[in-house]
């Protein structure tokens, strides 16, 4: 179908917007928004309509929606002031009012009176994607005072919004889940009604200046519990408590869903797995934090992009994992530069808000010594989703290497809070980062304590290096030499020259400081 209006034509088969014979470059989401507005020009399109059809039911912020509408207007030479083509109808939505002729020169359909059209929900929306879906039921107010409903409802709404920022699963809209408020709904029935694979439910109990919040994640098909947690807090700052609980619940659910989804597909052959199933299997290997598992994950992702070339998360992770392997010292950056860049570009072309792609850009910039660029890319990822522990930790390390260690400390501490377990292998990076902050501040015993904790969680080379240097600078030479022997067993080729050539770029003052400690610990030139 081709829609012609003014100097423009929108070709839905070729996914192109043309002005005359000139191609207008726009993001896929902006194209979809324009297509939906034009094809439904006989009525006012509401915000819920756009979320249901363009964003496939995933919750999006008002700022994101406004940005896409602005971009759509700019793409067709319109503006919010003129509204020649896309007209805002106050408190109702948008309507495309330009004169349109469809392919073959057929006249546009006659304009009808505005009518309310129900938004697709439940199974209709879920059929649009094979992504896992989750319904967040209204948290129950367990207090005697019904006036406290605002707090439990606020927690629920914040969790829905936070979860919607994880783009690899679908979150059922608030308007669909809040109909179950106060009904004591059966979880299996909710799953069937909304075609939700998982259900999150919980309760809030306030007593004077304390609050207890419980949450549990349930497999909607079996009714089995996947995860449960209880949070007890003092209400010194009600909004700070709400933000903290929201962040911790959202982060916990992300990691638990990864595990649950991988288990679902574990017994199925690779040829029978969909795009998300392949990504979930790759993530489960990468999570183990070994070179062998990372290589297995890369192989799975290659298969994913071969079979599903338009699936952005697969491209993004296929870029991210090889760069990360170089960043932690398992491989070298040489030879992996071109492939990641191609997949990053493809991921962002498919979805400009793909957070793994922005993280990959950050790690690549860090490895290439572009500190400011790395900070910018990680901040972009965190703007899209503030609850990404890996992006928060990566930002901390970039700040450390850029001689901004005191700014880095809150990044590592928050990333640790977002982990579901202190035994999570990825905690090793935050612990080592805290050790690095203390090392460069001259607090060597404190640095050694944190580096040792990191080694105990997972023996990443970074933690071993800082443990050796910290012990040596603290005057504990025998322990430093013992730690150095362990490090050289793990990486026999390590030397002062190797570190200068292989490590992500540190500010010159910091590199000299680190090498000083390693020399004292016995690292050869």
Please give a structural write-up:
By secondary structure, this protein is α+β, with helices and mostly antiparallel strands. Among the domains are: 2-107, Winged helix-like DNA-binding domain superfamily/Winged helix DNA-binding domain (Arc Repressor Mutant, subunit A, Orthogonal Bundle); 123-241, Rossmann fold, CATH 3.40.50.10610; 427-525, Alpha Horseshoe (Serine Threonine Protein Phosphatase 5, Tetratricopeptide repeat), CATH 1.25.40.10. Helices cover 53% and strands 12% of the residues. It has helices spanning 28-39, 47-53, 62-75, 123-126, 149-164, 174-177, 187-194, 238-265, 275-286, 291-307, 312-327, 338-350, 355-367, 371-384, 389-401, 405-418, 427-440, 444-457, 461-473, 477-490, 496-502, 508-520; strands at residues 2-5, 8-11, 16-19, 22-24, 86-89, 93-96, 101-102, 106-107, 133-136, 140-141, 170-171, 198-207, 210-219, 225-234. The strands form three sheets. A six-stranded antiparallel β-sheet has the order 4-3-2-1-7-8, covered by helices on one side. α11 (312-327) packs antiparallel against α12, α16 runs antiparallel to α17 and α17 (427-440) packs parallel to α19. The longest helix has 28 residues, at 238-265. The protein is globular, with a radius of gyration of 26 Å. The protein starts with a strand and ends in a 5-residue tail after the last helix.
Mean pLDDT: 81
Query: Strand sequence of the main sheet, in spatial order?
Result: 4-3-2-1-7-8
Give the C-level CATH assignment of the domain at 123-241: Alpha Beta
What is the CATH superfamily classification of the domain at 123-241? Answer: ABC-type transport auxiliary lipoprotein component
Q: Oligomerization state of this entry?
A: single chain
How many helical stretches?
A: 22
Shape: globular
In whole angstroms, the N-to-C terminal distance is 68 Å
Report the β-strand fraction as a percent range. Answer: 5-15%
- The secondary structure category is alpha+beta
What is the share of helical residues? 40-55%
């Amino acid at each position: 179908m081709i829609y012609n209006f003014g100097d423009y034509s929108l070709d839905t088969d070729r996914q192109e917007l043309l002005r005359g014979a000139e191609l207008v470059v726009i993001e896929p989401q902006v194209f979809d928004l324009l297509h939906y507005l034009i094809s439904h020009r006989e009525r006012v399109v509401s915000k819920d309509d756009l979320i249901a059809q363009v964003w496939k039911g995933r919750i999006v912020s008002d700022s994101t929606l406004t940005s896409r509408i602005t971009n759509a207007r700019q793409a067709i030479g319109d503006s919010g002031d003129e509204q020649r083509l896309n007209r805002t109808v106050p408190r109702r939505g948008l309507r495309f009012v330009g004169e349109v002729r469809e392919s073959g020169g057929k006249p546009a359909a006659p304009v009808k009176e505005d009518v309310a059209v129900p938004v697709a929900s439940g199974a209709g929306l879920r059929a649009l994607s094979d992504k896992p879906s989750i319904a967040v039921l209204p948290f129950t107010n367990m207090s005697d005072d019904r006036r406290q409903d605002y707090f439990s409802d606020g927690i629920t709404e914040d969790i829905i919004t936070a979860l919607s920022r994880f783009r690899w699963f679908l979150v059922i809209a608030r308007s669909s889940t809040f109909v179950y408020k106060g009904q004591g709904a059966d979880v299996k029935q909710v799953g069937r009604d909304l075609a939700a694979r998982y259900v999150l439910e919980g309760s809030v109990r306030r007593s004077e200046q304390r609050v207890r919040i419980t949450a549990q994640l349930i497999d909607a098909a079996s009714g089995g519990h996947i995860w449960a947690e209880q949070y007890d807090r003092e209400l010194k700052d009600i909004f700070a408590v709400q933000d903290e609980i929201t962040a911790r619940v959202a982060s916990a659910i992300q990691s638990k869903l990864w595990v649950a989804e991988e288990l679902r597909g574990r017994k199925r052959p690779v040829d029978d797995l969909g795009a998300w199933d392949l990504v979930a299997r790759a993530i489960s290997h990468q999570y183990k934090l070994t070179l062998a598992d990372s290589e297995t994950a890369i192989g799975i992702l290659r298969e994913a992009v071969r079979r599903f070339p338009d699936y952005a998360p697969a491209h993004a992770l296929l870029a991210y994992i090889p760069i990360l392997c170089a960043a932690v010292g398992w491989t070298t950056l040489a030879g992996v530069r071109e492939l990641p860049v191609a997949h990053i570009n493809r991921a962002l072309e498919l979805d400009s808000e793909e957070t793994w792609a922005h993280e990959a850009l950050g790690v690549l910039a860090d490895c290439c010594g572009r500190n400011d660029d790395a900070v910018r890319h990680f901040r972009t990822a965190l703007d899209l989703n503030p609850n990404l522990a890996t992006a928060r930790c990566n930002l901390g390390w970039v700040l450390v290497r850029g001689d901004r260690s005191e700014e880095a400390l809150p990044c590592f501490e928050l990333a640790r809070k977002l982990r579901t377990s202190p035994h999570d292998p990825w905690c090793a990076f935050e612990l080592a980062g805290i050790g690095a902050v203390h090392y460069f501040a001259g607090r060597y015993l404190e640095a050694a304590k944190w580096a040792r904790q990191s080694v105990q969680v997972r023996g990443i080379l970074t933690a071993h290096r800082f443990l050796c240097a910290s012990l040596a600078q603290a005057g504990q030479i025998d322990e430093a030499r013992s730690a150095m022997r362990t490090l050289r067993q793990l990486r026999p080729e390590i030397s002062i020259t190797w570190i200068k050539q292989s490590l992500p770029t540190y500010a010159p003052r910091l590199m000299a400081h680190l090498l000083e400690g390693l020399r004292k610990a016995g690292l050869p030139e």
